[in-house]
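Section 4.2 – Deliverable D4.2 (structural model, holo form)

The reporting period included a commitment to supply a predicted holo structure for the target in complex with magnesium ion. Inputs used:
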Amino acid sequence: MTPDTKSRAIAPGNWLGMMGGGQLGRMFCHAAQSLGYHVCVLDPAADGPAGSVADRQIVAAYDDGQALRELARLCAAITTEFENVPAASLELLAALRPVRPAAAAVAAAQDRLREKAFVLSCGVPVAPHAPVTSTDELAAVDPSLFPGILKTVRLGYDGKGQRAVADAAALVAAWRDLGAQPCVLEKRLALRRELSVLIARGADGACAIFPVNENEHGHGILSVTLMPARISPRQAERARAIAGAIAARLDYVGVLCVEMFELPDGELLVNEMAPRPHNSGHATIDACATSQFSQQARVLAGLPLGDCSLLTPAVMLNLLGDLWFDGAGRERVPAFEQVLAVPGACLHLYGKEQARPGRKMGHVTVLGATLDVAMARAAAVAGLLGMELPAALAGIAPVAGGGSGGQP
Ligand code: ADP
Ligand code: MG
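Output (structure tokens):
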């Protein structure tokens, strides 16, 4: 390390700041603390997943100027766990401390129309779409976009703020139902697969790109991720190159997730981006040499990026609050003891007190020497938890034992 690089890095023992106190903030705390940093979280909820893990929490609204200045006083650099932090707050912080990613990069992911225009400007295709921000635009929509999905331009996540629309009449009703707010109509595409790529990019432009994830969603929420995706090395290189081009064009500093659609003919489109670690990257904690959260801490502190290599194939299962209720709607504790007896199963719970259907409560990453082994074990875990079996695991014989003492 040159003395120059050394002087720019934030030394362990200093404080790092996190806007947001959810599970992504919690897992960032774990990673940053293991590198020797203290973490201060700013979140309006006192009892969030990150608050109990952070060294300190400032309980305040994201646009509370006094609280933001307090965060900047304490912390040497600040990051975020969600894209809807008000841009003005990130700008206020950036005037006082390094903020990674920058407000402009976060803003690019806050607005679906801006995001699509930006991706197209990188020479990367997106789904056919049209803005629906006025009654004129509503009337002028190209009929070739039906059947489509109407999505709010801002603040959508986990399939929220979306309506399936079959035709022009349904579009009018759906737009009203969404409050006649700015929306985008996207053509519903036949997908061969959904993929995502996580990339970490340092302030010096150095990049570390994780193996490609293959994702399956249920009701708009991620249900399972396979790592690595079952695609050719050439297709994986294409996906990684798209993520690299987008990160470079944004002059991005931090961890970025690029969600993609693979069409039946193999074409890759970008669906959306997240300017932060992502649910589809959680398997990196147990399966990669460096996790997405550790990369986030490294970039923030100005440290060298870690090795993204896959140590072992993995399947990540999301644990939604539905699993905390039996068929009669009575609350129960899922069968975690049995799950933990499955070789390669790594349980991560986010410490949320209240389970609700659709709420992300935790995840299980299941490791295996091959992806087939990880999938067979994941099928066993899904069965033990009473999960609706994701299509990716359908027809796979569950294997709950392994005789390898829990090693992959
Ligand atoms: P969110 O912000 O809620 O993640 P997305 O735009 O990623 O919103 O949509 C959630 C999921 O809905 C996607 O992962 C995909 O499964 C499905 N989906 C979204 N847009 C399309 C589309 N144009 N065609 C087919 N499926 C889609
Ligand atoms: Mg998405």
